[in-house]
Specification:
The chain has 2 helices and 6 strands; from the N terminus they run βββββααβ. The protein is an alpha+beta fold. The chain has helices at 71-80, 88-98, and strands spanning 4-11, 16-27, 35-42, 47-53, 56-58, 104-107. It starts with a strand and ends with a strand. The protein has a 6-stranded antiparallel beta sheet with strand order 5-4-3-2-1-6, with helices on one face. A hairpin with a 4-residue loop joins strand 1 and strand 2. It is globular, with a radius of gyration of 14 Å.
Length: 111
């Protein structure tokens, strides 16, 4: 089983206890426009997309979440990370939890 984020409080309508990462789109150029788009899939097919743009995390209202990391900051940090202890997916789930996008714990084994 790939890694997943088990939600602290499952979403309802329908009940969704977890998300898995289905895709990541990274934009490295042009400088100053770096961005990351993370696509997630819930247990019942719920699709969620999280975007970190040039000015930070784009919230559900389409506005930047104050104090959030930018796409450039996350890309540069990820580029220098050692994934021998924590997998890349686990690190992404931890970032989403830190930013309050989703709350839960990572389970499963890295592929």
């Amino acid at each position: 089983m790939p890694e997943q984020l088990d939600l602290t409080t499952p979403e309802t309508t329908p009940a969704n206890p977890r998300y898995v990462i289905t895709g990541i789109n990274e934009t490295w150029l042009p400088a100053g426009q770096e961005a990351i788009e993370i696509r997630l899939l819930g247990a019942n097919g719920e699709a969620k997309t999280v975007r970190y743009g040039p000015t930070g995390l784009i919230g559900p209202t389409g506005l930047v979440v104050p104090g959030s990391s930018t796409g450039a900051t996350l890309l540069k940090a990820q580029n220098k990370m050692n994934f021998s202890v924590n997998s890349r997916q686990k690190r992404i789930f931890q970032q989403l939890t830190t930013d309050g996008v989703l709350l839960g714990t990572v389970s499963g084994v890295p592929d």
